[in-house]
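lol ok so funny story. i was supposed to be doing the assay writeup but got distracted and ended up predicting the structure for this chain instead. priorities right. anyway since i did it might as well share w the group, maybe its usefull for someone
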Amino acid sequence: MDDHKIKIAIPSYNGEIMDHIGLCPFYMIYSVVMGNVIKEEIFTVPDDSLASENVAFVLAQKGVKILLAGKIEADEIELLIFHGIKVYWNYAGNVNEVITTYLKSDLSNHELKEKGFCKTSNN
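and the output, tada:
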């Protein structure tokens, strides 16, 4: 396994980003090495894990380290950070375009700036 590989998840439905993780049964998970997507998979959250706290746990178990979101609630952010997942928000549109934008962007426009989150999210 490549030490530089990172998994990035995007909550999605019909190829578009969804805002709330606790309502989203599908995630695109991208395995990325050195800024290039090497694998894409559609992950279906088990029905008994759809609550936000369970989704954060399940994504962490799958090795996800970054979540790209549209809008996201503070309690969802805290759960993801607790499980070692860095959160970026304010994305919208097609998930393949979102991952491309993320991989090419200056993350300072998307990284959490809320009080307390910025420091904690750098785990």
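The helical segments are 52-61, 74-82, 95-104, 117-120. The beta strands are 5-13, 16-17, 26-33, 36-44, 64-68, 86-88.
back to the writeup now i swear
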